[in-house]
Design a protein that fits this description.
Residues 293-365 form the Porphobilinogen deaminase C-terminal domain. The protein contains 12 helices and 14 strands. It is α/β, with parallel strands linked by helices. The radius of gyration is 26 Å and the shape is globular.
């Protein structure tokens, strides 16, 4: 597991006066040895000043560690943007965290980030984006973990809790192309780059003449491949593009009806250890309850279907104008030949929303038939 720590934003120099002991430069004093020659008064003063400075640094470091929070995150620009959004919200609510160096950003390289030439389904699924971060949390290398909720498996490792979701961003998908204004305008045979079976199945369901190829990497990498002409179009989460201030790259925004989003798309989750009340209280202060309930509803649907990266599943829960929860769920075959959808409506209350989602999942499981999910899980 590779870990890198930043006390400030990684793209800017550290302006902290005493960020570490390496900022103290020691100069050698000239001493003659023709007999013993005691240090000069100037040398003694210089040494005393150095000791005083070193003591000041040590005291400042100790004071900072009292309120230090180490935020664990992946190292992509989007993951860092989410970590710094979390940092900013913590500082806004807790004055003791505003001191320079009070919050560290710790970058953790995950297996999912290292292996980019294979589909996620072939190397273990979405948990590969969270496994090493969870390990760092349990090992106390970090204090809290910031995740894209759509990357988080439906189970949490023993010893961790996820009590907080930040306010959800736009859940829709963005269509990006240099040659067409929409999926419908792409010529037959055009290649759309996407690593998501959810997107692949819905694209092929509506536009069977198109092709979809595995297309992994962070936002910048995918856009670079698009510009190089390796594919004619790609789809990205609008939420990520907004957080990166890259909405100028968007050709069109797909409606929910055209492309039902991934479970928990646009939501950020923050986890901590179960026995760390201090961190639990910090992150609970950031929680957006409406988002947390919607995400819980969608994840209950996913769990009921025992979804994996080999299972094209989509789901979206939201509060309507009357204050009720509306949930839409979808399961499909990867080639888009079978797409099954359902919906539910009920009170915007956690227990009711979870029951609705589980019921929707059971319905689609029955409609799909006994061999449907077994077939998907054995696909290569």
């Amino acid at each position: 597991m590779e870990i890198i720590t930043f006390k400030q934003h990684p793209f800017f120099p550290d302006t902290s006066k005493f960020s570490s002991s390496s900022n103290i430069t020691t100069h050698s004093s000239s001493i003659t040895f023709s007999g013993f020659s005691p240090p000069s008064f100037k040398t003694q003063v210089s040494r005393k000043l150095m000791v005083t400075k070193a003591t000041a640094v040590t005291e400042q470091q100790l004071q900072t560690k009292v309120s230090l929070i180490r935020i664990g995150t992946r190292g992509s620009p989007l993951a860092l943007a989410q970590a710094y959004e979390t940092r900013a919200k913590l500082i806004a609510l807790h004055s003791e965290l505003a001191e320079e160096g009070a919050i560290d950003i710790v970058i953790i390289k995950t297996t999912g980030d290292k292996i980019l030439d294979q589909p996620l389904a072939d190397i273990g699924g979405k948990g590969l984006f969270t496994k090493e971060i969870d390990e760092a949390l349990l090992n106390s290398d970090i204090d809290i973990a910031v995740h894209s909720m759509k990357d988080v498996p439906t189970y949490l490792p023993n010893g961790t809790i996820l009590p907080c979701n930040l306010p959800r961003e736009d859940v829709r998908d963005a269509f990006i192309s240099l040659s067409a204004a929409s999926l419908a305008e792409l010529p037959p045979g055009s290649v759309v780059g996407s690593a998501s079976l959810r997107r692949q199945s819905q694209i092929l369901y509506r536009y069977p003449a198109l092709k979809v190829e595995n297309f992994r990497g962070n936002v910048q990498t995918r856009l670079k491949k698009l510009n190089e002409g390796k594919v004619q179009a790609t789809l990205l989460a609008l939420a990520g593009l907004k957080r990166l201030n890259m909405t100028d790259k968007v050709t069109a925004v797909l409606s929910i009806e055209e492309m039902l989003p991934a479970i928990a798309q646009g939501a950020i989750g923050i986890a901590c250890r179960t026995n760390d009340d201090k961190m639990a209280n910090y992150i609970a202060s950031l929680n957006h309850e409406e988002t947390r309930l919607a995400v819980s509803c969608e994840r209950a649907f996913l769990e009921t279907l025992d979804g994996s990266c080999r299972t094209p599943i989509a789901g979206y829960a939201y509060r309507d104008k009357d204050g009720n929860c509306v949930f839409r769920g979808l399961v499909a075959s990867p080639d888009g030949t079978r797409v099954l959808e359902t919906s539910r409506k009920g009170p915007y209350v956690l227990e009711d929303m979870v029951i609705m989602a589980k019921d929707a999942g059971e319905e689609l499981r029955k409609r799909a038939g006994p061999g449907f999910f077994d077939f998907i899980k054995t696909l290569k």
